Amino acid sequence: MRLLDLLLPVPCARCGQPPVSPCRNCLATLSESPELPVPAGLRSLTALTSYDERSSRFITEAKYHNARTGLVELARWAARMVPAGVHGDLGLVTWAPTTEKRRRERGFDQGRVIAGVVGRTLGLPTRNLLRRGRGPAQTGRSRSERLRGPEMIARRRVDASGAAAVDRPGGVLIVDDVCTTGATLSAAAAALADAGHEVLHGLVIARTPDPGGGIDPGAWR
After folding, report:
1. What pLDDT was estimated at residue 212?
2. Residue 27 and which of 51, 54, 69, 123 are 20 to 30 A apart at CA?
3. Where along the chain do its domains lie?
């Protein structure tokens, strides 16, 4: 247990028990991530858990009630699940950004929060490599609409001389909170590939077991 948890206990978003969210008991009951194909454009995708009634509370609490502690704890555990072979491929971490409207409403971008935790846990720098293009959020869209994915645009980084900046060698780990159809991660991967990044991996907190039904994480975005 960390000293901060003792000084500033946080009730678990699922069961209400302190000192941290998720508590050890609820963390231990999370379901394994489903075995599903890797989204196009990625070499691998690691997910901490399945998106179901056991995990959804922590993510929705962060997005709608600013209870980011759960997101931070889950991101830390997700980072530890990145396979050693993938970790050795990586040079930096980035995230699939939410829409500007959602960021203003929430006061933060959940992908950026996750990326910061993952980067620190893995000992890798975090870079803001992507921006969201115009277009609707995934909220309320049908599965066929979500499959087309949002528009992602790679940011052009320059050094003091105005030349293209060179990032640390190695692959890019793209993080997001949830993978439903995989379209968001694929759009992010395509934008980064066009910008010259050749090795792309994904990491999410949760993956939806059945993209064709069940709970709709698109409603969170």
Report:
1. 54
2. 123
3. 31-220
pLDDT tens track for 153-201: 998 764 444 444 445 568 999 999 999 999 999 999 999 999 989 899 9
Specify whether domain 31-220 bears CATH 3.40.50.
Answer: yes
Helix axis angle for 110-122 and 68-80, nearest 10°, is 40
How high is the pLDDT of residue 94? 97
Long-range contacts of 215-218 (CB under 8 A, 24+ apart): 215/51, 215/52, 215/53, 215/56, 216/180, 217/51, 217/56, 217/59, 217/178, 217/180, 218/138, 218/139, 218/140, 218/141, 218/146, 218/180
Predicted model pTM: 0.81
- Counting Cα atoms < 13 Å in the Cβ hemisphere of 210 gives 5
Residue of 56, 66, 138 lying closest to 101 (CA atoms): 138
pLDDT tens digit string along 18-28?
878 888 888 89
